[in-house]
Structure formats: structure tokens, C-alpha cells
Amino acid sequence: MPVALLILIFLTDGASPKKACSYQDVLDYLNLTTDNGVYKLTRPVLDHTHLTVVELDIILYAILAVIEKTQTFIPFVWATMMWNNERISWDPSQFCGIKQVSVPRDMLWQPDLFVYEMIEKDDSPQNPYIFISYNGMVTSEEDVKVVSTCKMDVHKFPFDTQKCNISIGSAIHSVDEIHLLPFSNSSRATQFSREVMKTQGDWEFLQLSVNSNNFTHENKQWDQLIYTFTMKRRPLLHVINFLLPILFFLTLDVASFFISDHRGEKLGFKVTVLLAISVLLLILNDILPSMSNKTPLIATYCIVIFALMLLSLLETIFVTYLMEVDSASQEKLKLEDDREDEQEKGKINNSNTEKKRQTRCSCICKVSDGEKQHEVLPLSEEVNKSIQSQETHVLLLILEELKELQRTLNLHLSSNEEGVKYIHWAKRVNRGFLIFYITSVILFLSLIFNEWNS
Question: Which reaction does it catalyse (predicted)?
Fold first, then answer.
């Protein structure tokens, strides 16, 4: 074998020292230090006419809160930004295949993006590093707790669906300098969000849509990305704690029609149920926002039921009044009957006394006739005439008593008919209002639940 070939094999197969590379070698090559203002003071372009394209991606982690009273939407999102830095590039083959390096955030320029709807500063921990690639692509990833304002429509509360926006744009750079593009489309963002979703609370996440928008301000155009979060409320808690109790109270109010009107507890029962509805209305006032374009259906639901129960209470008061009038007429009739009984007893006693006196006189007359029959024949004739006149007087008294009894009977019948008239009207009012009440309740509940489901 030739010597030259042996030397070539030795040089090829011999153990040669492997080159050691580090991330610092890349930074030294780029001259990337914390004191170098070239990388962090200005937009990273070699020519100011070049456009910086920023790709943005937002994935929903959790729905922390949706506050209707203050119309606040608080999601927890994962945000990714990517842009090109024209001053950064290296050949991975010269640095042992290193294609990506992580550096502190304050070493590089970052896009001045902000959320238009944000009302509080983000207090979540920030990722201290960003990644730079060999081709100049810079990637920033961080978790953000967004406290934003959201215009909510609570017309169908608690069966409502809300859409809240997070609009992202640059503070000082127009479209001539920064162009915003979504990294993921709506379907992909929705799918990723459902896969990484941690918690949804009282809400069910439906969709995350992404739209680009341009607007003009001070003769300049600005790019804007709008992320729309669509979510549906889980109504079970509100149905159990609010809607069903009101429905139960309404059922109790309907059942109270079967309580006897002669008892006083019917009126007290209806007042108690009405006060219970008032307490639930105070709870509703703490849930719903103070301002709304449309009257919430749940407010209509409570107000109409409250009005129906109030009308039922007024009807009970009216029927109770009719019953009281009937009772007063019955008591008056009883007093008159007692007074007439006392008068009749007095007349009977007087007649008995008169009869006893007449009997005594007749006995005295008979004794006198036996003793002096031969002397007083003319006197006996006078006594007989007197007895006949007294019997005629007694008959006249009996006739007057019969006439007085007839007048009393007529008065009693007229008073009784008046009382029956009041009772009849009370029963008719009660029966008619019950039919109206049940019909109104069924019709209203059908309409309100149909509106909720539409």
C-alpha cells in the first residue's frame, strides 16, 4: 500500500478534537449586549422604508370572570408575537448547528402592541426571555391576564350568549411601519383554545374568531387585530336559585285561591308571598347591570309575576270586603230578631197579666151573682157586655200581632236576600278572577320562555 494512502487514512480516521460551541459565541458574533442600543432603541430595519411584519397568535387558557354589573371580561390568554430583526443573522453550521438563542427581553426592540379594551395593568408574571433565530426571526411568548371592558347584552339573561373583543394594535407605528397579521385563523385558534382550556367557570366557550381591521387617525392608517370570544352562560345556577323560586311562589299564590275566604289567614298568606318576591327582586338588582339597551327578560318575568300577585292580593281584599258586608247584615238581622223576640215576650206577659185580672174579676162577679142574684139582674147584663167587649179587644190585639209578625217576616226575607246577593257576587268575582289569573299566567310563561329559547 502506498505511504501517501496510509497517511490519508490516518488523517481521516484518526481522532480529531471536536469544536465546542456556546450560545455566548453567537451573541459575541452578533455583538448583542445589554449596552448595545442598536438592537433595542429603534425599529430593527436596515432601511427605514422596510416594513416590519408582526405575526400575532392568541390562545384562550381560561375565562376567569365575566362581571355583568361592571361589564368586565377577564380572560387568561397565551400570546405569541413573531417579527423579523434585520440586524440578526448567523450561519448555524459555523456554530455547531445552533439555530435559536434565548436572550433577556430588554436586550431587543419589541413591538409596542397594546389591548384597546384593557382597563387594568397586567399583574401576571412575565416571561423574562425571548427567542432569536438564525434568520432574524424574534419570538415572544407570555401569559397575559387581560382585564377588559366588554359591551354586554343581558336581554336574555340567564340564557344569553356574549361576545367580547380584544383589539390589539400598535401605539405609535402606522401601517407604513408595522403590519399586523394573525398567525392562526379562527378555526385553528378555536381548536387550540378548546384543547388547552383549563377552566370556564359559569361560561361555556364556543368560538374564538380573528379579524383584521384598519382605521384612520390623524391622516394615518393603523393596523388592528380583533379577537372575538364567543361564550354561552351556563344557566343552571340562576334557574335553581332565582327562576324556580319565583315560579314556586306563583304556584303557591294560585293555590291560595282554594283557602276559604272567611278565614283571615288567606290575606296574610298572600302578603307574605308578595314580600318574598320583593326580596328576590333586590337580589336581581345586584346581578344585572344598571344600564342596558333592552329591558332584560328576567326583569319582565319578575315584574309581571309581581303585578299578577299584587292584583290577586287586591282581589282578595275586595272579596273579603264583600264577606264583611254580608256578615254585618247578618248581625244586624240577628239583633233585630232578638229585639222582636223581647217585644213579643213582653206582649205575651202583658196579655197573661190582663187575662189573670179579667179571670179574677169574673170570679168576683160570679160570687156576687150567687149571693145577690135577686138584686142585681141589670148588673149581670152589664158585666156580660163588658166581657164581650174585652174579647173583641183581645181579637184586635191578636190581629195587630199577626200584622206585625208579617212585617217582621218581610223584613227578614229582604235582609236575607241582600246577604245572599253579597255572597253571590263574592263567589262570582272569585271564580272569574281565578280563571283570568290562571289563563294570564299560562300565556305569559309560554311567551317568556319562547322568547328565551329563540
Answer: Na(+)(in) = Na(+)(out); K(+)(in) = K(+)(out); Ca(2+)(in) = Ca(2+)(out)
